[in-house]
Design goal:
Oligomer: homodimer
Largest sheet of chain A: 7 strands, mixed
Radius of gyration of chain A: 22 Å
Helix content of chain A: 10-25%
Shape of chain A: globular
CATH architecture of the largest domain in chain A: 4-Layer Sandwich
CATH class of the largest domain in chain A: Alpha Beta
Structural class of chain A: alpha/beta
CATH topology of the largest domain in chain A: Metallo-beta-lactamase, Chain A
CATH superfamily of the largest domain in chain A: Ribonuclease Z/Hydroxyacylglutathione hydrolase-like
Number of domains of chain A: 2
Chain lengths: 300, 300
């Protein structure tokens, strides 16, 4: 499963039982936490997401509503006897803040905690199947969006064909990589005879907090799912602009220009009790828009 | 009204919809926040306690479950256009941590924020009616309890007597202070003829996180209400001891020795789903014990 679950969809001030920003990207049983606003650990309990499965945490920027829950979560994992490595990525002073909080508490960590500085756009993490990279967004302070991209998946072997051509096991790896295979008698087995393509690699892009900014387009183009903030409705476009935030219409305009498949909007201002207008405003421009609702899991 | 409302009654790890430590002491319409665990601002909304009425915040120690909600609350007040002074008291590195968090966020505060170091036991704040002082508790790191004491209230004037003796308005202040008054003709009006005593001053003591420690007794003796932590039941007395915490029985023993009027126990470990056993264990030793339950307001 490749999916994102929303833990907090509100902007800075919590209201109407909406919480500050946090999301969990789940891929093959691992959880990748994206931002960690105050109360994230409580939201994880509420939505029954196993804290112990979190291996990486990515913090977009150091406004409190995106990271004030981090120190508490780090602490709690230790009290719960977590044993696995935890890797945290964030803009430079994050490490110092967390280290200071752990030091003054005389904390004894029972798992290996790695606090990494994000030093600019680039790849933050990759394993055999997934790559996480970051890109700049246009906010009042240094801020990063994150791309979660499946790597090119191996081609699928067609079992009847393997038998038909009597292919040895030693051929499988090359065939999965898309290569042809030469039999001992010199016969060339064309890759397309015995394999079929996998589903194309999927991509999720999280645009953090940002003004409307077309320079994001190359990073999110054709993505299966894009999260873009929509702090205000479009009649507050000037307020949004002055505070380095976006409106629902602007999020939809960017999604349309970037030809993404689906748009998720969130980071709603606490001035709005109801969210219906966000949905309708964005859908006028980009019909395949959904509201990022807390507790809901969106497939990528 | 002099009362305390519980916002969080759990120890470090939130569980069973119990939250990390925070309480609001209310006196004459002002709110004094005592500790501010993660999620406190959300609990304030849940229990409809006006954030704008908080004038002072007292942080007992720098374990995260007692202050990780502070930076978020400070931020939120600014975003809500709070204008009044806010005074925060806590052990020394608290100021540095909060200042760092405000600095990296490029925060613009719209109200005067004062971050005060607690430099040892003594008076932290007083006005005409109330005094807040702190005392050491016995925890793994530097930790303080807090006493909220009414000042000696003025004596009450008996209106019939004021008329009977034909006392001028200029006499009232002296009489309220307990002094006699000399009339223009030289007659002495004895204070007790025209006033009656007020109710005795009330006292609330918050014992923060602590081992069982009889040196707390002088600070809490005869208090109307004492909050004492009870992280464990008494069959975990050794665990409590090793972690610088107390059991329900120990809290009750201390309350009994200090001859307090009423005991409130909290800071329950997340290993306990039900809290009934805490109540019964403490009441065996000190019958006038209550569980500190979230959202409940206890009169002092």
């Amino acid at each position: 499963m490749f999916a994102v679950t929303i833990l907090g969809n509100n902007s800075a001030v919590p209201a109407f039982d909406r919480h500050p920003t946090s999301q969990v990207v789940t891929y093959q049983g691992n959880h990748y936490l994206v931002d960690c606003g105050e109360g994230t650990q409580i939201q994880l309990i509420r939505y029954k997401i196993r804290r112990s499965r979190i291996t990486h945490i990515f913090i977009s920027h150091l406004h409190g509503d995106h990271y004030f829950g981090l120190a508490g979560l780090i602490n709690t994992l230790s009290l719960l006897n977590h044993r696995q490595e935890l890797h945290v990525f964030g803009p430079a002073p994050l490490r110092e803040i967390i280290e200071m909080q752990l030091t003054v508490a005389d904390a004894r960590m029972c798992y290996p905690l790695y606090l990494h500085h994000i030093n600019g756009p680039g790849i933050l993490f990759e394993n055999e199947f997934l790559r996480v990279s970051c890109f700049r967004t246009l906010h009042r302070i240094e801020c990063y969006g994150f791309c979660f991209e499946e790597k090119k998946p191996p081609r699928k072997l067609i079992s009847e064909k393997l038998q038909q051509y009597n292919l040895p096991f030693s051929a499988y790896e090359k065939l999965k990589q898309g290569l042809d295979f030469q039999m001992e008698d010199g016969t060339i087995i064309k890759n397309e005879w015995v394999t079929r393509p996998s589903a194309p690699p999927r991509k999720y892009a999280y645009c953090a907090d940002t003004k409307y900014d077309e320079s994001l387009i190359p990073h999110i183009r054709h993505a299966d799912l894009v999260y873009h903030e929509a702090t205000y409705l479009d009649n507050f476009r000037e307020v949004a602009e002055s505070r380095f935030h976006s409106t629902a219409r602007q999020a939809a305009e960017l999604a349309k220009k970037a030809e993404v498949k689906k748009l998720l909007i969130g980071h709603f201002s606490s001035k709005y009790d109801s969210l219906e207008a966000f949905e309708s405003e964005a859908r006028e421009v980009f019909p395949n828009t959904e509201l990022a609702l807390e507790g809901v899991c969106y497939l990528i």
